[in-house]
Design a protein that fits this description.
- By secondary structure, this protein is of the alpha/beta class.
- It has 2 domains: about 75-185 and about 305-374, Rossmann fold (3-Layer(aba) Sandwich); about 200-290, no CATH class.
- Helices cover about 40% and strands about 20% of the residues.
- The chain contains 12 helices and 15 strands.
- The strands form 4 sheets. Strands 3, 4, 5, 7, 8, 13, 14 and 15 form an 8-stranded mixed β-sheet that branches.
- The chain is globular.
- The relative contact order is 0.15.
Length: about 375
């Protein structure tokens, strides 16, 4: 067996016969990282300053112990892989969650680095993030290599993090197919599971309010489609103006179409109170945000996810398949649970949900909670 000494050598080596075992290599990698300048800072993500000035930083610093804001150690004291299992109660599927993150700034920095950089006024060490992504993909591979895998997918997201992470994973997987956004949000089919709602302690009044909220979400989903069309038209105008520098008859026609859609939205929202949740602070279309719903209410819902309409017909190809679902994090577990529940309808052989991290707050109640280190 060829002895691989550095991380880059490991990444560039194509056959596993020439590689160290995954565990041996990661231990070597941790030692290499620790000896390469990451001194006197604990393992994990750190927020600090560089030098004497106010140069605020954010980077991944591997090689030591857990911090109070994140747990990113790969091994337990007995050198077995350390991950966290969470039982998804409705589907009965066990999810595997690699790390724990208690400071949500870390999640924001990974998912929306430029926005985080602008808001926090911090210099992000992108090299350390890339090293973290590569190391984590090895970690995930160490779990997947013992399981049959036909399809790897990830849910819709407002960021590119899931895509980037799965791209790293796919470099190590042979024979698996990546199907992005296999499952997407579809509020048209969402409903309240009365039995679950009662089990979670919702009153009849709260359940009726949730049903009323669903009606509004479904109305908003229709408006959201109109806003997407408006965004598309506005983008086409910006493109045409950029090329020609002045309005044309075609541009005027598109502007009239935008006005007509805006009037249609006004009519659809007539009598509705409160802020229009289908538009963001920059005037762009904003999709339904499931994470804004209180945990008990969220876990009382079913049918929120369905097969991506753009992949219509793929349902018949899912029977007997072994599917890995990767997501950036798990909080209540409701999103992964809904996705697993929906996939089970199509006769899949197995589902293996993997998330980067558990974030506050993973709560299933005394009856459902199953969280342990392994």
């Amino acid at each position: 067996m060829k002895y691989i000494k550095t991380f880059d050598e490991f990444i560039d080596t194509e056959t596993f016969d020439e590689r160290l075992s995954i565990m041996d290599f990661i231990e070597l990698l941790l030692e290499e990282e620790h000896n390469s300048g990451y001194d006197n800072i604990d393992e994990g993500w750190s927020f600090g300053t560089r030098g004497r000035g106010s140069d605020r930083t954010f980077k991944f610093t591997p090689g030591k112990n857990d911090t109070d804001i994140t747990s990113t150690e790969i091994f337990n004291d007995d050198k077995k892989f350390k991950y966290h299992e969470v039982l998804l109660p409705k589907s009965g599927v066990m999810s595997y969650n690699l790390y724990k993150i208690s400071d949500m700034r870390i999640s924001k920095a990974l998912k929306h680095p430029q926005k985080f950089k602008d808001m926090e006024k911090r210099n992000i060490d992108f090299d350390s993030i890339e090293k973290f992504m590569q190391r984590t993909s090895l970690y995930i591979y160490s779990i997947l290599k013992h399981n049959p895998v036909d399809i790897i997918t990830y849910p819709q997201s407002s960021s590119e993090f899931n895509k980037d992470m799965v791209d790293h994973i796919m470099k190590r997987m042979q024979g698996a197919e990546c199907i992005p956004n296999l499952m997407v949000k579809n509020v048209d089919n969402v409903y309240v599971n009365f039995t679950v709602a009662k089990e979670l302690g919702l009153t009849d009044k709260e359940i009726n309010q949730l049903r009323h909220d669903i009606e509004n979400w479904q109305k908003d989903a229709d408006i959201y489609k109109d806003r997407l069309k408006i965004d598309e038209l506005k983008d086409s105008i910006a493109y045409k103006l950029g090329k020609r520098g002045r309005p044309s008859k075609e541009i005027m026609r598109v502007k009239e179409e935008i006005k007509a859609l805006e009037e249609l939205i006004r009519i659809k929202r007539k009598g509705r109170k409160g802020r229009d949740k289908t538009i963001d602070s920059e005037g762009r279309a904003k999709n339904f945000e499931i994470k804004s719903i209180e945990d008990r209410r969220r876990r009382s819902l079913e049918g929120l996810f369905g097969i991506n309409p753009k992949l219509n017909g793929i349902q018949q190809n899912l029977k007997g398949k072994h599917i890995v679902v990767f997501d950036d994090n798990i909080s209540s577990g409701a999103t992964l649970d809904d996705i697993c529940l929906e996939l089970q309808k199509y006769g899949v052989a197995s589902i293996l949900p993997i998330t980067l991290a558990i974030i506050p707050k993973t709560v299933y109640g005394d009856k459902h909670e199953s969280l342990k280190d392994k």
